[in-house]
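Lab notebook, bench 4. The sequencing result for the construct came back, and we need a structural model before the next group meeting so we can plan mutations. Quick request posted to the team channel:

Model the 3D structure of this chain.
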Amino acid sequence: MQVPAKVSNMAKMILNYVPVYAMLPLGVVTDDNNFENQDDLKRQLYKLKEAEVDGVMVDVWWGIIESNGPKKYNWNAYRSLFQVIKDCGLKVQAIMSFHQCGGNVGDAVNVPLPQWVLQVGNSNPDIFYTNRRGTRNKEYLTLGIDNEAIIGGRTPIQIYSDYMKSFRESMSDFLDAGLIVDIEVGLGPAGELRYPSYPQNQGWSYPGIGEFQCYDKYLKEEFKKAATDAGHPEWELPEDAGQYNDRPDATAFFRNNGTYLNDHGKFFLTWYSNKLLIHGDQILEEANKAFCGCKVKIAAKVSGIHWWYNDDSHAAEVTAGYYNLRDRDGYRPIARMLSRHYGVLDFTCLEMKDYEQPGYAKSAPQELVKQVLSGSWREGIEVAGENALPRYDPNAYDQMLLNARPNGVNRDGPPKLKMYGLTYLRLGNQLLDGGNFQVFKTFVRKMHADQEYCPDPESYGRHIVPLEQSKPQIPIEVLLEATKPMEPFPFDNETDMKVIT
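Done. Here's the predicted structure in token form:
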């Protein structure tokens, strides 16, 4: 029996489908662990369903769940939330949010780390990231204590692991039912694999270069040992890298022919960025253990630090831990590390265009996105993404559509390049306003390659298999082979699926 041409063409076009998720409001579960305003959320979720959105992303806050004491988890509010999402016919991307909410761009809600953790910091403030002047940052525990059993007798890695195991046990019915499709593992401030180098609550403002965050006693000792082992006991952490709102050329470290280019600077930056790689690798291995056998993907988020990208120093990226220069790729090693965990790299700033940024910031979000997406695809991993700031205009949607399928749709099968999924930031009344909502609905339709909502990921080429244990650890030397720069894949200038034609 011959397949009708119409069905055949639809089956080909559906392979261009990119699922769309919407980020839920930060305070959807309150800081005292209640799921309030259920009727309002249901109304909003049904509107998303009307727009044929595939699912939602939600922060699952450590500071809420384990607030009553070590291993005293309370998942009740989140179970109620997930049931409502399921009833509305949507899927869930769950973020294991081991960071504080508050102090970053767009944070209108405050959820600190658990009090019993902060109390440890009262007597030992070095558990927090620290800048050169000794200012502590309580957004996230310093990776310097990842393997130190000083938080109630557990290491942070063990705490994160126990939390994820408890989530799996408590949400096993939702996992088995296929409601939860992705587990994004928070690996730093704002849930991103980076150092908290540009904190607004310490006075940073765009486009400041930020500051290195490795001056707690643990990282200081680790650097001193590493330098001594390398035959340079005299090397210290940088003293000449400036302050949060400096420009690169105002610092001895980042200016032309600055410290970052000499042997001392290169050694420091390699150490600083390698610590971040190892941190992510350790926690993602625990995530794979916790969710092994579940039909989910593990994901990690990388921040889109696009300012100063066109400066030789890439200073803002470098202070965040992304040692990315014109002759050194700072992102492909992260993708290679993720590959051993079958991980998805989730990247931000997909909506931005270069011309929208002020010239003095030497910003290049389009080039940054091309670099990170291309490097991830070259390492054989899936890449997902989101917009960095709320946008409702066709220009932003078209840019996201371009990045989702950089070479357009293929009417005869899967496209040459395609993102794993896109998460829109963020669900709220402004998105659901009449005009904004109509444009958003068109955007979702175009992300779906003009096809109707598809409940079966297999149809658009996403094969959902039980998560396996992480592959053997990749030696750091092999990870660093991926620092060799490569030209990004060619991207079209415009999407062939514009929101408004």
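The CA atoms of residues 97 and 129 lie 17 Å apart.
Will bring this to the meeting.
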